[in-house]
């Protein structure tokens, strides 16, 4: 097989027909890929595939167990440890580098004190579902739109000070952000996690200076960074800055944005390295900016 | 078969062993201890399968390591509704073993850029697995396999345990593709029926 595999487009009937061959692994690699592509896209759960796979898996029980060489365990454990150290394991890594598809970032459980009042969490679109729809900008809009309703207008600055302040370092970051927010032309957003709880505050000054103050984030490891993104209108997300997060879960930093307009979205993603030019899903936190009333 | 729960010999306060599911959650969270435990629980089955398919002690070791690493990195992709952790894990071993066997085929069949093929790329993960019945044992499956007509059993063996594709099976056994397909289909239908009976399920 010197040519790249051609992946045929199967319809449901073809998939049902090929289920037994697929289950025993007798399809050519390209054909198997065609089945998987169909299963990924099809609304039919194709129970016949599951059934056939269950039957073939039972065949594994007929195999005589055998003791592997003692050294194998040490090699496995060393490789697993290296995964943790080098950010390849999903619990420490995020980004496109992981082997079998989109990496998952555990959305950090925010500390209870970080919730800015009663957010209508039921109306916050679950990020996971949005991600499945592969419509990143819509996901941001949905999450952020729910937030905007929650914050309301007027007195927002004081409310944020009271609700978001907790740890002192975080407080300092929030203060700096709010100072920037008080300047003419600034726009601000509370960045929320997928479950609707606040993770922090992002402000873009009239001159493009960006200040972020977030907490409750999973610490970064190795070359990982959290990258802040700005998206205005329907253009591609623009990276605003990278920040590493230590054991305290705090991300306090500055960045630069080409624009500062109300309605632009601020979003945070976990990236394998600094300098990402396109966000790696899922989005850890996001919010739509607004200008203080008055 | 001696599964009387908490008989008089039960040791009070003895720690209950973590379930496979709990161990897998530990893998997803990056806990090495849980990987250690899961490995010990399934290492002989995994190595047995890898050795059976590869017929190569050294290659089988690589396969087992690859498979456990795949489970370690992909533990969050296990879907409880699709079968047991045991079947999932052993299916990964099977997948990796078949991959290894296919990569080992004669040089003429390998692409020119063999290095690229051998690079540890995405670990192949089964997307479907399952379990016919929790009560299945080795003997029951062996019997179900043994009662298949010879050509059907051969087709299953060549595909599932030797890693041959349908074209290769047709070539090897000298029958048309359609015949291979038919044999595999009939074999699975028959196996499923036998296993249902053996597993104590209602006769279909």
Structure description:
The complex is a heterodimer of chains A (294) and B (204). Chain A has 294 residues and is of the alpha+beta class. Chain A is 33% helix and 18% strand. Chain A contains 8 helices and 8 strands, in the order H-H-H-H-H-H-H-H-E-E-E-E-E-E-E-E. An 8-stranded antiparallel beta sheet of chain A has the order 5-4-7-8-1-2-3-6, with helices on one face. In chain A, strand 2 (198-204) and strand 3 form a beta hairpin. The model of chain A is unreliable at 95-166 (pLDDT under 50). Chain B is an all-alpha fold. Chain B is built from 9 helices and no strands. In chain B, helix 1 (20-28) crosses helix 2 and helix 7 packs across helix 9. At the A-B interface, helix 1, helix 3 and helix 4 of A face helix 2, helix 3, helix 4, helix 6 and helix 7 of B.
Order of helices and strands of chain B: HHHHHHHHH
Side by side, the strands of the main sheet of chain A go: 5-4-7-8-1-2-3-6
The shape of chain A is: elongated
Total strand count of chain A, please? 8
What is the arithmetic mean of pLDDT of chain B? 79
Alpha-carbon Rg of chain B, integer: 19 Å
- Morphology call of chain B: globular
List keywords for this structure.
A: 294 residues, alpha+beta, B: mainly alpha, 61% helix
Helix-strand layout with pairing:
The complex is a heterodimer of chains A (about 290) and B (about 200).
Chain A: H1 12-23, H2 29-41, H3 47-58, H4 71-85, H5 127-132, H6 136-151, H7 156-164, H8 168-182, E1 187-193, E2 198-204, E3 209-214, E4 225-231, E5 238-243, E6 251-256, E7 265-271, E8 283-288
Antiparallel strand pairs in A: 1-2, 1-8, 2-3, 3-6, 4-5, 4-7, 7-8
Helix pairs in contact in A: 1-3
Chain B: H1 20-28, H2 32-54, H3 57-74, H4 85-103, H5 114-118, H6 138-146, H7 150-161, H8 166-173, H9 177-198
Helix pairs in contact in B: 1-2, 2-3, 2-4, 3-4, 6-9, 7-9, 8-9
């Amino acid at each position: 097989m010197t040519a790249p595999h051609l992946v045929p487009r199967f319809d449901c009937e073809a998939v049902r027909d090929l289920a037994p061959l697929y289950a025993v692994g007798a399809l050519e690699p390209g054909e198997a890929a065609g089945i998987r592509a169909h299963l990924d896209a099809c609304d039919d759960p194709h129970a016949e595939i599951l059934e056939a796979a269950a039957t073939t898996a039972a065949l594994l029980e007929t195999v005589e167990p055998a003791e592997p060489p003692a050294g194998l365990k040490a090699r496995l454990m060393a490789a697993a440890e290296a995964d943790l150290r080098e950010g390849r394991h999903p619990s420490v890594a995020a980004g496109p580098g992981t082997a079998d598809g989109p990496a998952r970032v555990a959305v950090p459980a925010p500390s209870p004190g970080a919730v800015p009042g009663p957010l209508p969490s039921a109306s916050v679109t679950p990020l996971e579902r949005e991600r499945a729809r592969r419509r990143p900008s819509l996901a941001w809009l949905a999450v952020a739109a729910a937030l905007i309703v929650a914050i309301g207008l007027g007195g927002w600055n004081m409310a944020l000070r009271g609700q978001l302040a907790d740890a002192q370092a975080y407080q300092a970051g929030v203060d700096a952000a709010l100072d920037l927010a008080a300047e003419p032309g600034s726009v601000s957003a509370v960045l929320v996690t997928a479950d609707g709880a606040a993770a922090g505050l992002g402000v873009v000054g009239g001159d493009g200076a960006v200040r972020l103050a977030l907490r409750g984030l999973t610490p970064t490891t190795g070359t990982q960074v959290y990258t802040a993104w700005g998206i205005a209108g329907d253009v591609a997300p623009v990276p605003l800055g990278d920040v590493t997060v230590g054991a305290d879960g705090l991300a306090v930093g500055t960045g630069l944005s080409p624009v500062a307009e109300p309605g632009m979205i601020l979003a945070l993603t976990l990236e394998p390295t600094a300098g990402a030019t396109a966000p790696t899903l899922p989005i850890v936190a996001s919010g739509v900016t607004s200008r203080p009333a008055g | 078969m001696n599964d009387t729960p908490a008989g008089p010999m039960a040791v009070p306060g003895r720690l209950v062993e973590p379930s496979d599911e709990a161990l897998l959650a530990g893998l997803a969270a990056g806990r090495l201890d849980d990987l250690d435990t899961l490995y010990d629980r399934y290492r002989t089955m995994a190595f047995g399968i890898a050795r059976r398919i590869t017929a190569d002690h050294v290659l089988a070791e690589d396969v087992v390591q690859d498979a456990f690493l795949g489970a370690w990195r992909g533990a969050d992709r296990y879907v409880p509704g699709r079968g047991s952790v045991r079947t999932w894990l052993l299916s990964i071993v099977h997948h990796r073993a078949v991959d290894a066997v296919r990569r080992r085929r004669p040089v003429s069949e390998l692409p020119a850029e063999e290095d690229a093929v051998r690079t540890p790329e995405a670990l192949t993960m089964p997307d479907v697995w399952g379990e016919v019945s929790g009560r299945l044992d080795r003997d029951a499956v062996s019997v179900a396999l043994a009662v298949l007509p010879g050509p059907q059993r051969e087709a299953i063996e060549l595909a599932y345990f030797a890693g041959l594709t349908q074209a290769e099976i047709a070539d090897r056994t000298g029958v048309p593709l359609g015949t291979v397909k038919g044999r595999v289909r009939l074999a699975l239908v028959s196996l499923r029926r036998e296993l249902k009976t053996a597993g104590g399920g209602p006769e279909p």
